[in-house]
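Memo subject: From amino acid sequence to discrete backbone structure tokens
Keywords: amino acid chain, backbone geometry, structure tokens, three-dimensional fold.
Body of memo: The sequence and its backbone structure tokens, given next.
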Amino acid sequence: MEVLEQDGSGGSAVVHAPEFVGREREMTELARALAAPPAAVWIEGEAGIGKSRLLREYLDRAADRADRVLVARCPPLHHPQTLGPLVDAVRQATETVAGLPLSPLAGALRPLFPEWAGDLPAAPGPAEDATAVRHRVFRALAELLGRLDVAVLAVEDVHWADEATLEFLLFLAAGVPQPVGLVVTCRPEDVAGGTLLRRLATRLAADSASAAGRLRLALGPLDVAATARLVSSMLAGEHVSDRFAGFVHQRTEGVPLAVEGAVRLLADRADLSFGVGGWGRRQLDEIGVPATVRDMVLERLGRLGPEGRAMLRAAAVLGRPADEATIRAVAGLAAGRARVGLIESLDGGLLDDDGWGQVAFRHVLARQAVYDAIPRPARRTLHRRAGRTLEALAPPPVGELADHFRVAGEKSEWCRYAECAADLALASGDETTAGALLHDLVVNAGLPPASMVRLIRKFPFASFAGPARFRELVPPLRAALAAGVCGPGQEADIRVQLGSVLLFMGEDDAGRAELKRAVPHLGHDPAEAARAMMRLGWPRSSSWPASAHLRWLERAAEVEVPSMTAADRLGFVADQVTARLMLGEMDGWALEARIPDDADAPAEWQQITRANVNIGDMAMLWGRYAVAARRLDMALAQADRRRYRRYESVALVTRTHLDWLTGAWDGLAERAAALAESEDILPLARLELLLVVGQLQAAAGAYGPAAERLRLVLDGEVGSGALADSMEPAAALARLALAAGRTEEALEITEEPAALIARKHTWVWASDLGPARVAALAAAGRVEEAEKLTAAFARGLRGRDAPGPRAGLATCRAILAEARGEHASAARLFARAAAAWQDLPRPYEALLAQERKAGCQLAAGQREAALSLLAEVRERLIALGALGDADRVVACLREHGVAAKRPQRGGRRANGNRLSPRELEVTRLVATGRSNRQIAEALFLSPKTVAQHLSSAMRKLGVSSRTALAVRATGAEFAQADVPDQPPGRVAKNR
């Protein structure tokens, strides 16, 4: 039979559930991938395209493997619960973990599965930070999946997953070997750049073109033929005419959910009927099919009876699979009427029963359409009923309860459950979810001051990205102060939190003012008073001198805190050491001796490891590189032994920076690039890695990309308040400007950093910035200013054993002598500077000082000695890897009649592997941090063409990521066009 275009008055069409059609190729590919464990499958497609149906059909067909597949579904909750989809899936897979051979690590799962506390091992000791807690939970959860014999973890609608779930999937995908197979479904339009979801998509799709078990499936709409088969399957397999199939396809664009909705709606309207000649109906052009799935759902909802509508609305408010009794309680119906409504909803194809008594919407689009159509007063009532009903569950789903009571307007229950959900998230290391929940309460719940302070003290401020979230906390805190209902102690508590928030926002003056007002009234909480004083002592402020910070550090040291544990005292000493050394105080080194090498308690191990990381960083600042190496190596060993991932990542970054300074450049660019791509690297640490890469690029002669990268680092560090760290990128940028003859630019770059050091009297920060500023002033003819700066530098280092800054001071004195035309004296002073740099050791700076010495010798008429020294410098620069600087030395030698060869470029390859001019151009732009779209706009290409050039360049250079490609851009193959011209007959002044 076929659907005829004629009026019919026979019986109504009986619509069946649609069969699985049009996805034979995708099913074959999915089955092939999952047959090669461990699989990693990414399935994407727009809403309603059939991602979940494809997975369900596979499980139905592969019955022998289905019991080893754990399916987790991510509901669209306002605040997703930490690891909620995975926890729910595990609970459905097993009722108990009793008898499973779990290691002590599984005790980390207690916050997630409180009902299994009697069967899980004891909770582990404290971890170093949220990252370590989260990683421990991930390892425990992976172990549990293994003990449950899970071969494949399938996560549906991962675009709605909480960040902890996304991080866990990344953790699994990065495993070597990958512990379980993964199947993930997602909407591609929700995969934003720079997100965890983007990283997961990239990770899962990385080898999809070649590796067995790796697959990326993009589901598209059905064609007309497949649409006809789908419609036919819903009409008892009867033939569907091409014209009618084309009509349905045109109205629905071949989206299976829309096709199904259209056919069911036509049947509901009796637009399809069976007459004498078969299926009949009105003329096709008379059919009105709603343009969207939402409109289809709402029209079908309106055709249901009151019981069906009530059950659908209750299911929409619940937003999760639930049994009949739960939906009935939320709907407020008696058992008989609820059963009628449930049957009507199931028969209509809007709800689906999973076979285990759990009912939910067949598609989230239908659920959202029904939910949005519920009037607000009725919605509040339904959410209140949902909350009261779900409270009876054990354990209660605290995240969902917080959402239900929030919408219901039940403030006390909302606050109670939201705080419980935040505590659960913090216990699991999920600071992002905890921060969102707590932020929502403080900003929107109108809390009393005591509750506000309690919640803000729990805030994981490190999880906040950007100033907006901090800014929103300020009005409620100020409002609590303005209300005037607080006593002095409570007011001080609020001011401490307000001051801390303002400091996080970068409003240092306002933040310090609030802390200073709070401190006199914190006698009831000496620990908080000491913390406030330490914040005032930390040298973030650009206006306070070092002496002001030191006064607060000394006051903090005098506070008696009876409740302070041994670990707290050790942490306090570590903070004092770090702050004092950053301020350039010699007594910081005396305090350093109070940090032990080991301890008995886990909490003390953490503080010792943290202290070693920070002291290593400060030793670099002072130029005590042997101390830095020893402390960082100790930190790395401790972090590895105790699994302190955050401290390990920071120590690795700092060690990479130390390798740059000490000339350990072999493979350094690749190591820095690999670290920068790690998911454990903090934003400031990533900037430090970019600083290393930028300076390597500058040394190789890739001046343009280096300048852009160093500017990014400088802006990021200044914006985050890392004032001491901002000096090195500022100095490096100024050098590049001087090399290109842009003296005014160099003056502008160094002006504020130099003034900041002078205001604060933190001259240990001037190792690099001092010489760069003096060189810029000398180049501008402002020699008297350069002399004053050098004299202040010398006074600031009196009594300080700071080898790095003293080498910088020696360089300043040599530059001054050269600027005054005292070439013979300048040559001797540059020799002293070179020796001081080499003693650290900092060989690159030593070689640049020797190059400057040779330039002064040439000016003094000592030609033979100068050219001999330049030839030696050339060889050592090449050996180090500073090929751009070696080119400059070669140019000087040739100018003076010496036949010197330019260094060989390791980046050159056989013709078949050399980059084309366009590939070189694109690669240079990648090195500046531009996206494909930005590169396309700059070069007047399409993003697709840019992607092709990048893919070709990566293949030729043997790299697999944009970061690694950018690092390879340090080679001379990329740098030659960027080498600045040098004035004839002279060595570069900035060196």
